[in-house]
Design goal:
rod-shaped; 272 residues; six-stranded antiparallel β-sheet; alpha+beta; endopeptidase fold (from Nostoc punctiforme); 6 helices
Amino acid sequence: MTFQEFIDKYLGQKKGYPDGSYVGQCLSICKLYIKECFGINPPPSGTNSAYGYWSNFPSPLDTVFKKVLNYKDTIPEEGWIVVWKPWTTNQWGHIAIVGKGSTTKDLINYAQNWTSKVFQEEINSYNNVIGYLVPKDNMTKDQQQAMTKLEKFKSDKDHGNLEGAVDDLLGAYKDFQILKGDVDDLKVSLNALEEKIVEINLKLEDKDDLLAISNKELKTAKQTISKLSEDLELYRPYKSRYESKCLETADKLNSYELFKLLINKLFPPWKK
């Protein structure tokens, strides 16, 4: 059964696991989800609490899930199982199925026994979320093969005297997977930052080009102003000579000549 088929089938109902037991409990609906969507028999938590699915991570959960710690920038994906650790007013913790559309602020999930015994969609903060059980189909083929070999080695009765060492090896490998996921996330963030830096540098180069063009135009304008100022200085003596000549001519004219000029202006000869 797919994630969406499971949601469509059971949304709005009160379910227990096994059928008829622990009806309306948060762990019951998650056990049913694991059974019908991943094909394994969900184990007891070992702590009589939802938190036990994280703290104990009982087998065979590790055959289909890997544990991924929750961080501030973690955005869980649809179909993951989210686990809350116990808090002051809840000693059992909580467990739910992650829905579509979660953000760094809002955790979209499907659960029982949060605000209702009915299986329904909830929107929560990430307060007290310890981590996620992530389906291994998100792992690479090489990682799946490596895990299969390690699990087979552990279950091989011929190596019973090495069981303790194998348990340590499996634990180290699972820790490695968690750390590898964190490293991969950091690489994605680093790539995004590098792309942003390249984008900013390109914008700075464009600004530098624009500044160079503006400086060139400013230099040209200053040169033009300087040339005009030089030309003005060249014409200044001619202006002075012209003004002096005008004054000299005016001084030579007597009153009679001025009167004559005025008459000629008022009564041109051709109008006689």
